[in-house]
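The material for today's practical consists of a large collection of protein records. There is nothing in a record beyond a sequence line and a structure line. As an example, a complete record with its sequence and its structure tokens follows:
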Amino acid sequence: MRIQISTLRRLLHTSSAPTPNPLPLLDPVSVSNTISSYSNDPSRAIDFFHYVERVHAFSHDTRTFNAAIDVLAKFFDFDRAWSLIARMPSPSTDTFRILFNRYASARLPSDAIHAYERAASEFGLKREPLFTSLVDALCEHKHVIEAEELCFKRGDFPVTTKSHNMILRGYAKLGWWHKCREFWVDFEKGGILRDLHSYSIYMDIVIKSGKPYMAVKLFEEMIERGVRPDVVAYNTVIQAVGVVDGPDRSIRLFREMVDNGYRPNVATYNTILKLLCRAGRFDEAYGFLEGMRKDGVEPNVITYHSFFKYLMKPKEVMGLFDRMVKSGCQPRMDTYVMLLRKFGKLGFLRLVMDVWKAMEENGCSPDKFAYDCLIDALVKKGMLDMARRYDEEMVAKGLSERPRKELGTSILGGECCYEDHGVF
């Protein structure tokens, strides 16, 4: 049985000297999860990284290194991230995938490409999966022009249906629907056949571009061409018919899918639940939730988000939140932000503080959005001194560039910086 994140976090906060008996169950998964739980507090994340190494003689592996690198890179500390990579016995493709994504999200596509080149020259990782990870990261973060140039002009690897799919998804991320259409039409002109994933991506595109009825036609075309659908394709068309005709037709298609031998996954149920909740049909949604469990499909965070978004009774929302946690489904940071924002707008400060307390007890470090929701709720209730304290805390952690003028917040004397452990 692994140590819980909250237990490991308490060790860092309370231990001042080495313990005589290292924790017997200190394992890479628990350590990496705990580092990731400090994803919005890089100083604490790195402190914990060194603490388990120094105090408990823990030997870091690829997973724990990757978790620390991800936190550092999230806060643009790429130099220290590279220093950690230099310490690793053998950095993996996953290690560089993390860097590609962080560079791309920081709007540094040229640095992501340079990281790929370093991986090739210094670590001998110039393999197609690494190149695919780079292109995927660039497309995910809307640097599709650079990705297209890499795929079609630089020519490190042959152009495939997979690379076309990634570029198509990249244009979808940008919302360039006309370009998506052009790319879709030109797809097969270059001798590249559309596969199941191509259709799934383009069906999602036409839904988002306001033409959900087109997704149904594409689904039919796909079947006519002999491309066998999978659950993802069914999920997409279930969403499309739900947008056009409401949840009843989606439920009929859901049953047709089951009759055809396809087993619905959690995303299938989530699609139906979202449609029912949006329509205010909560009794049916709860019934579907129970049926989901009976079918052996466990609800995930997105399942509960559908309810949290549309339910308006605070008591019902908190009851469902408690049920979610007790079932073993751990809330994400955006779960907490959603609830903080909802209760703050409704003026229920006590519930805002309850959610904040639950967030801390469950081992989540608040991000900027969580702090903003809490501070807004406090300001709304006229509790300016407490709002100012949380604003100072947010600035000290480096989650905000400057304090709020309307609060007259001053930057704390203890500036948030990484502790120098003499390791790098």
Observations:
- Residues 207 and 314 are 32 Å apart (CA to CA).
- The two ends are 33 Å apart (CA to CA).
- Residues 196-279 form one domain.
- Confidence is low (pLDDT under 50) at residues 412-424.
